[in-house]
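Figure 3 (text version): structure tokens given as input.
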């Protein structure tokens, strides 16, 4: 039995459900997650256990105890696969005094708020580090990263000494994505993601403001605030945003992303940007901050440009030159590369090798 653990049910829904379905003929899967908005959609798992944790709290003692109780009696033949750095830290704290029972894998899909430059994050890193260093080599057999920089930073921080894998991406179900056939006469630019400062939402608003007098381009934002994240904008800031751009809330990406022309990803850090892969596959012109989690996507797929240091003026310059780039996009070539390297099938095959070794 393979246990997928995540501190948010949305994480186990995304591409993980697709991977579970892809590997269901080989393994049985149980999800351990707080059941919230997505509880009725987690149908690909053999079983779902409700992790009783308040994810809006920094540390929820009841949630730590509940996770401990759920994993302490697992069998030696079971495998645990943890998703996200936050879930890994909660797991390490909750199992600090437990005897290791299972083969345990953790996918660090991004370093997130803990490794941001804020004062609170810096203090948290200092406080949490002793626990991580004490527990991680005892409890984790394999760490999976999505890019080399995240690996180097976290290994230096945690002093992890066991097996390391680099797997770019979480698995894209390319069959669900509607393909773009034509570009709009009035260019539609979109930002897709949680409305976090770390995702570059304020840089995006500055970019949009630079085109406030243009009548041939429109700016959209798709996503929502995240009350469980210290980097999230608040309701007041959301109201200001709605006055500056066209706010869509959450959208059905597979069925709606093709309606737009240009995807902007000014995120400060990414493991390996899923929405950038989706945009590239659909056929959008993509511009992203030059970081490890976006650089390889843009350069390997040749689907747009990266911008050094999230320079707003450079974004504006590239957007103004968009037509000459759009005319040269080879979306069929991009899609073939994504299927080969980043699809659900490609990532599932990598996971299957790791799971077979654990058994």
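Below: residues designed for each position.
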């Amino acid at each position: 039995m393979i246990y997928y653990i995540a501190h948010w049910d949305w994480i186990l829904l995304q591409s993980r459900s697709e991977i579970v379905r892809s590997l269901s003929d080989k393994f049985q899967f149980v999800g351990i997650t707080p059941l919230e908005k997505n509880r009725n959609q987690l149908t690909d798992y053999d079983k779902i256990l409700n992790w009783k944790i308040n994810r809006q709290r920094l540390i929820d003692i009841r949630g730590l105890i509940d996770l401990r109780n759920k994993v302490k009696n697992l069998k030696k033949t079971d495998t645990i696969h943890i998703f996200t750095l936050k879930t890994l830290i909660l797991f390490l704290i909750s199992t600090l005094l437990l005897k290791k029972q299972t083969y345990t894998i953790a996918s660090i899909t991004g370093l997130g708020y803990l490794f941001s430059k804020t004062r609170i994050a810096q203090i948290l890193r200092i406080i949490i580090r002793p626990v991580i260093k004490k527990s991680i080599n005892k409890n984790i057999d394999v760490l999976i990263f999505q890019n080399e920089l995240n690996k180097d930073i976290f290994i230096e921080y945690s002093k992890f000494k066991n097996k390391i894998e680099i797997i770019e991406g979480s698995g894209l179900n390319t069959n669900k994505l509607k393909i773009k056939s034509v570009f709009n006469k009035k260019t539609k630019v979109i930002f897709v993601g949680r409305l976090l400062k770390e995702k570059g939402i304020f840089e995006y608003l500055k970019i949009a403001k630079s085109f406030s007098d243009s009548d041939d381009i429109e700016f959209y934002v798709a996503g929502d605030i995240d009350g469980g994240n210290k980097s999230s904008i608040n309701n007041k800031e959301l109201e200001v945003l709605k006055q500056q751009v066209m706010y869509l809330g959450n959208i059905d990406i597979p069925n709606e992303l093709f309606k737009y022309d240009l995807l902007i990803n000014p995120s400060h850090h990414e493991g390996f940007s899923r929405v950038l892969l989706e945009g590239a596959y659909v056929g959008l012109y993509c511009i992203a901050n030059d970081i490890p989690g976006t650089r390889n996507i843009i350069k390997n797929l040749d689907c747009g440009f990266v911008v050094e240091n999230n320079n707003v003026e450079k974004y504006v310059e590239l957007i103004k030159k968009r037509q000459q780039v759009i005319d040269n996009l080879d979306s069929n070539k991009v899609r073939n590369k994504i299927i080969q390297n980043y699809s659900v099938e490609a990532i599932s095959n990598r996971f299957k090798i790791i799971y077979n070794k654990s058994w």
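The CA atoms of residues 153 and 321 lie 36 Å apart.
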